[in-house]
Amino acid sequence: MPKIFGVALLALLLSAASPAPAGAETSAHSDRIAGRYIVTLEDAPASADAEAAVDAAVEQATSMGAAVQHVYRHALRGYAASMSASAAAALADEPGVQSVQPDRIVRTAAQTVPTGVNRTDAELSPTAGIDGKDTRVDVDVAVVDTGIDLDHPDLNVYRDGGKNCWLSWLPPNDLHGHGTHVAGTIGALDNGTGVVGMAPGVRLWPVQVLGPLGTGSWSDVICGIDHVTEHADDIDVVNMSLGGEGTDDGDCGKTDDDALHQAICASVAAGVTYAVAAANDHADAAKTVPASYDEVITVSALADFDGKPGGLGRSTCRSDQDDTFADFSNFGADVDLIAPGVCIYSTAMGGGYTTLSGTSMASPHVAGGAALYLAKNPAASPNTVKAALQGAGTLDWTWPSQDGDGTKERLLRVSSF
Known about the structure:
Low-confidence stretches: 1-29, 110-117
Mean pLDDT: 88
Order of helices and strands: HEHEEHEEEHEEHEEHEEEEEEEHH
Number of helices: 8
Structural class: alpha/beta
Radius of gyration: 21 Å
């Protein structure tokens, strides 16, 4: 394909992914997406009433000139739509409407510097059984991200479980690389070639909510969570290596009308365990969502260049000190675990491999660890999974180093799973 055609095609895809009215633009001083809103409805007394209420609300919004992109029925009830500010204000006053909130930009939590390291003792896990023979861990993990390379030979991608919330008429095939890298850390095959993941061969559900630039919207992310919750009887673990501005109101988003938080709480209540990245601002994770939510497992990043404790490894792909808190990682009371996130070698688009750094790379180690635990304890609740991972963790890493709080998080260790 000539380069000029490829660029033109990318521009076409990006324009199709932006349903905001002509002339609408995102302010350089805000993460709000102009002209786009997430509408949450109040609870209905029965499921039949709930379905009817959602359909009626969508019809009403359309009659007011709104262009509906997503309809939510499982993690929460409501929809996302492009509309004028006056229409949004009018809808907010309608009976049965809980909230109308601006849609916002969401980004990957990855660094751009290549990486590669492993320090979680996954090779000692009897469940992972890493021995170069392709025996697969019987767990389902959703990767809510940029999609996954659907044809990567080192990944067990469950195509039928996929969903593209960024562009619904395309398959959830990765056009960025971030989601494919995350997927490999979680579950690359133990087949003697390439890399091996934490829980080799898990079924990977590709849920695409971010586009080729690694950005998207909260409405698209909620669409992904809605899909996960619809399939909560099958999906065991979700990895979300993404984030944006926000806080935890301590009330599952009901107090501050946070639709994202409401959706995640409903999904966790349905039995799905969420591992999320703490983000890469070297700041308190309390100002980032979903990292600040109590219902998820929030993961900070460790710099480790040799896979061993002791701090003797020499830096490779980026400047940092071995066996210390990564100098970019967020910190704080909302962090539940620390995992390797510097110089991580994993799968890449096009069937290859690459290295990346970031809390985006730390989180999938924990998602893989959760998958190993659930393979042995399939009835465990998300809270039980979190407690088990923390209980099995180790404090054998250099602290405080660049950690900005007064708590030493436990380092993920899965040898007992």
